[in-house]
Design brief:
The complex is a heterodimer. Chain A is α+β, with helices and mostly antiparallel strands. In chain A, 32% of the residues lie in helices and 34% in strands. Chain B has a single domain, classed as 3-Layer(aba) Sandwich (Rossmann fold), CATH 3.40.50.880.
């Protein structure tokens, strides 16, 4: 078993309206950041897990994201995976 | 007709629903703790409103995996009645019993209001006690009630007469200005293609007792009894 750290990014699909992002975008404009074109807000999730190898960890994470961490009807996800030195 | 009402940690409309099914329409009713799995004695399972498991991650996302939900799916697959109200609707979409998803309201506000709704023009077991195209008023109370689905799903819902309730004005006009939360096609409540599963954001159980001066929700429960 190896130990892994995953950084998971869950984002709204482009077709889904993000009213919170629109509100933050207008807040940035009010602060004077006129150059901001758009803001989309997502979720960032850190997961520590044990897996046989990198491939096993990726398989597990895909399942976790498809089943719970993201809702495929409205969200996309991607993740970065790092193997941690065993302690 | 025997009713069961699912109780999750964080459900808060469960007793309101039980009051209507047990006391107002006089039907045997029992509460179903979220870890119970035997629903074989029930004709109708109601997933009530609230904030199941704190609505962490997404509304209904954690509730979806509680032991009772597999039994609710089995109950539904046998063609028996399932009604999800508000958080219950969110859970039914998360678990895949109904298509689409409920997302953050267009204007970001939590909306607590009474809104007019247009009943489907088609005869359904859930609305038989209403007139086709009747306009009723029901309470809504949600922060994440904006119905979202892709264009194909919306077309299928319309083609198969699955849209039972739509937000409208008091005259029944349906457009963007009569849409409180930005829902696609002003959708407030839909069924599955077979019609035995209904999910809706408005609260019929909060408008089913004359004492409240609001009884437009009672027809839904009476329709079920006649089904």
């Amino acid at each position: 078993m190896a130990h892994f750290q995953a950084r998971i990014y869950v984002t709204l699909r482009p077709s889904v309206l993000d009213p919170a992002g629109v509100a933050v975008c207008s807040g940035l404009h009010q602060l004077g950041y006129e150059a901001v074109e758009s803001v989309r807000i997502g979720k960032y999730i850190e997961v520590a897990l044990d897996a046989a190898d990198q491939g096993d960890a990726e398989t597990q994470l895909d399942q976790m994201c498809d089943r719970l961490l993201a809702n495929p009807v409205i969200e996309n996800y991607r993740f970065e995976l790092n193997e941690l030195a065993s302690t | 007709m025997k009713f069961g009402i699912v109780v999750f940690p964080g459900s808060n409309c469960d007793r309101d629903v039980a009051y209507v099914t047990r006391d107002v329409i006089g039907q045997p009713t029992r509460m179903i703790w979220h870890q119970d799995t035997d629903l074989s004695d029930l004709d109708v399972v109601i997933v009530p409103g609230g904030f199941s498991y704190g609505d962490y991650l997404r509304c209904g996302a954690i509730a979806r995996f509680s032991p009772v939900m597999n039994s609710v799916i089995n109950h539904a697959q046998q063609g028996k009645w399932v009604l999800g109200i508000c958080n219950g609707f969110q859970i039914l979409t998360e678990v895949g019993l109904l298509p689409g998803a409920l997302t953050r309201n267009r204007d970001l506000h939590f909306i607590c209001d009474r809104v007019p709704l247009k009943i489907t023009p088609h005869r359904t077991p859930w609305t038989s006690q209403y007139d086709p195209d009747q306009v009723i008023t029901l309470p809504i109370a949600h922060g994440e009630g904006r119905y979202h689905a892709d264009a194909d799903t919306l077309k299928a819902l319309a083609d198969h007469d699955q849209i039972l309730f739509r937000y409208c004005d008091h005259e029944g006009a349906i457009d963007d200005t009569t849409n409180p939360n930005g829902s696609a096609s002003n959708i407030a409540g839909i069924t599955n293609p077979q019609g035995n599963i209904l999910g809706m954001m408005p609260h019929p159980e909060r408008a089913a007792d004359p004492v409240l001066n609001a009884t437009d929700g009672l027809g839904l429960f009476k329709s079920l009894l006649a089904a």
